[in-house]
């Protein structure tokens, strides 16, 4: 009996941010192209960021895109950051739709917890005013060692999570 092979699933992982917008491709071969584009620090920059994102979609030709949802962290300029990043995510989702690329949103805790539960990453300890806080550092995952920024690590991890776990059910069977 012959083995059923599945076509390569090419995932574009994105970590959108007001200052940096990181992206990475992950497929059956592992980590592929990756990089940073300038985020939308102002409403006036939204169209430029969207144009860069569209070039990335055309260049990388992903099967699916998975983006990190924006969650506001305390003390980080709540309304301005939230509005800009959510507008940027909306533009990116529309670009994906135009190019027939399914686009999914996930939370940071979803992809980071998955990696630290399934692969070897270091546990770092950070002292706060009242206690020592333990946190897994996904930048210590061996496959991400060559990535130059924490944002690109997040984008790569989002793509790997979608490829290996979250969206694996989307992989069509070969006929």
Could you please describe the fold and organization of this structure?
The chain has 175 residues and is of the alpha/beta class. It has one domain: Nucleotidyltransferase, domain 5, CATH 3.30.420.10. 37% of the residues lie in helices and 25% in strands. The strands form two sheets. Strands 3-2-1-4-5 form a five-stranded mixed sheet. A two-stranded antiparallel ribbon has the order 6-7. α2 (78-98) links the parallel β4 (64-68) and β5 (102-106). α1 packs parallel to α2 and α3 (108-118) crosses α4 (150-166). It is globular, with a radius of gyration of 17 Å.
Topology:
Elements: E1 11-15, E2 20-27, E3 30-38, H1 46-60, E4 64-68, H2 78-98, E5 102-106, H3 108-118, E6 122-127, E7 132-137, H4 150-166
Parallel strand pairs: 1-4, 4-5
Antiparallel strand pairs: 1-2, 2-3, 6-7
Helix pairs in contact: 1-2, 3-4
Compact overview of the structure:
This protein has 175 residues and is of the alpha/beta class. 37% of the residues lie in helices and 25% in strands.
Q: In order across it, which strands form the biggest sheet?
A: 3-2-1-4-5
Low-pLDDT runs of 5+ residues are: none
Q: Please report the first level of CATH classification, the CATH class.
A: Alpha Beta
- Please report the total strand number as a whole number: 7
CATH fold-level topology = Nucleotidyltransferase, domain 5
**Biggest sheet character:** 5 strands, mixed
List the helices and strands in order. Answer: EEEHEHEHEEH
């Amino acid at each position: 009996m012959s083995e059923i092979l599945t076509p390569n699933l090419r995932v574009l992982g994105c970590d959108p941010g007001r200052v940096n917008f990181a992206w990475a491709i992950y497929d059956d071969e592992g980590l592929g192209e990756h990089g940073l584009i300038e985020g939308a620090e102002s409403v006036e920059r939204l169209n430029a960021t969207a144009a860069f994102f569209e070039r990335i979609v055309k260049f990388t030709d992903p099967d699916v895109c998975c983006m990190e949802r924006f969650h506001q962290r305390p003390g980080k300029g709540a309304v301005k950051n939230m509005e800009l990043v959510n507008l940027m995510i909306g533009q990116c989702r529309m670009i994906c739709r135009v190019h027939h690329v399914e686009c999914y949103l996930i939370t940071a805790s979803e992809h980071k917890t998955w990696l630290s539960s399934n692969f070897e990453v270091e546990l770092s300890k950070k002292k706060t005013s009242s206690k020592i806080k333990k946190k897994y550092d996904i930048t210590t995952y061996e496959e991400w060692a060559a990535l130059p920024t924490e944002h690109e690590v997040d984008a790569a991890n989002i793509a790997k999570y979608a490829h290996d776990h979250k969206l694996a059910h989307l992989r069509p069977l070969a006929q």
